[in-house]
């Protein structure tokens, strides 16, 4: 069985990636410091506790498990937090990624898939966003991911690395079989917070502004089911074995949902009223982000068949009901 190192494998996306790898016959080795990940989400392979800034620890783990590739999901990934406290984002996302790449180079390992983000694009002039859309990030999170993509390009040119950055749009949902899902404390993401309001954990759902230049005044995002993203990370491993043509690819659904539309879907799915309150806008948020992902469909066979908003909300709701009692 082929072994793959998954940094951040105890987190939301990372645990789904590990599950997808195991289902395809790979052995995922999770490398995580558990600062935001969860030991209970590591079920399909070994857990190695460590910090990606610790190059020596990474070399030790690479030597022990001899992985054939790395899927790099470890990062800080909250837009609002990145604007309020940018220093850790540069330290962990950039310095940590450089540490990982140096450990790989010391070990003679050169294949890596990066969990990147649509936040690298900033406020695009035109929608949908393609791989040709200029990158002008407006928040620290997106800026750090773009720096890491540039480092990957340098390692590809200078050291013969084989790399692919997956710029995915908003991840949502949970494994349809209930084996893993989203756990954050505090929880900053829209869909879980809407569902927390439905279950009574929050008194109301806070809309971060209702005066955006969109159809109903709330932000629009392209949501992809996390299991569809996870399957594509597995496909990306095989892509690195071929003559790759693209250093980065968008993963989205070619459609967007406003925050108010998500609340409406959640009301139908949960059967709860979900009271809403308008809060101030959050710095670093663009009004609308919608992907065009036809290149990923051609290159990776990307087919987001679980990514209807109803399925995303239904699986996320089932996960919350399972884990909350």
Q: What is the SS-derived class? A: alpha/beta
How many angstroms separate the termini? 36 Å
**What is the domain tally?**
2
Q: How many strands in all?
A: 14
Question: How would you describe this protein?
Answer:
By secondary structure, this protein is an alpha/beta fold. The chain has two domains: 3-171 and 225-251, Rossmann fold, CATH 3.40.50; 190-221 and 254-323, Alpha-Beta Complex (UDP-galactose 4-epimerase, domain 1), CATH 3.90.25. 39% of the residues lie in helices and 17% in strands. The protein is built from ten helices and 14 strands. The chain has helices at 12-23, 55-65, 79-84, 87-107, 140-159, 190-199, 226-239, 259-270, 294-300, 309-323, and strands at 3-7, 27-32, 47-49, 69-72, 111-117, 162-168, 170-172, 205-208, 220-221, 223-225, 248-251, 257-258, 276-279, 288-289. The strands form four sheets. Strands 3-2-1-4-5-6-11 form a seven-stranded parallel sheet, with helices on both faces. Strands 12-9-14 form a three-stranded mixed sheet. Strands 7-10 form a two-stranded parallel sheet. The relative contact order is 0.15.
């Amino acid at each position: 069985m082929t072994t793959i190192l998954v940094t951040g494998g105890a987190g939301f996306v990372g645990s789904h990636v590990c599950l997808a790898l195991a289902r395809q016959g790979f052995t995922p080795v999770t490398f995580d410091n558990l600062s935001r990940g969860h030991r209970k989400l590591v079920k399909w392979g070994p857990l190695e506790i460590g910090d990606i800034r610790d190059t020596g620890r990474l070399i030790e783990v690479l030597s022990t498990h001899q992985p054939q590739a790395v899927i790099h999901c470890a990062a800080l990934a909250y837009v609002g937090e990145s604007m309020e406290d940018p220093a850790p984002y540069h330290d962990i996302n950039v310095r940590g990624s450089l540490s990982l790449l140096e450990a790989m180079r010391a070990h003679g390992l050169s294949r890596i898939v990066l969990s990147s983000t649509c936040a690298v694009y900033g406020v695009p002039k035109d929608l949908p966003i393609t791989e040709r859309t200029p990158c002008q990030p407006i928040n620290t999170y997106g800026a750090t991911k773009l720096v890491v993509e540039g480092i990957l390009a340098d390692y590809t040119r200078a050291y013969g690395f084989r790399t692919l950055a997956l710029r995915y749009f908003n991840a949502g949902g949970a494994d349809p079989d209930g084996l893993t899902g989203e756990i954050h404390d505090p929880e900053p993401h829209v869909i879980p917070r809407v569902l927390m309001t439905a279950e009574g954990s929050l008194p109301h759902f806070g809309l971060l502004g209702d005066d955006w230049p969109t159809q109903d005044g709330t932000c629009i995002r392209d949501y992809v089911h996390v299991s569809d993203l996870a399957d594509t990370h597995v496909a990306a491993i095989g892509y690195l074995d071929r003559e790759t043509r693209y250093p980065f690819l968008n993963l989205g659904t070619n459609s967007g949902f406003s925050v108010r539309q998500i609340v409406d879907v959640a009301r139908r799915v949960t059967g709860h009223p979900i009271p809403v309150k308008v809060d101030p806008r959050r710095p670093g948020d663009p009004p609308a982000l919608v992907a065009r992902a036809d290149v990923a469909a051609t290159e990776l066979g990307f087919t987001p068949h679980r990514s209807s908003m109803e399925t995303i909300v239904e699986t996320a709701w089932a996960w919350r009901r399972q884990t909350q009692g």
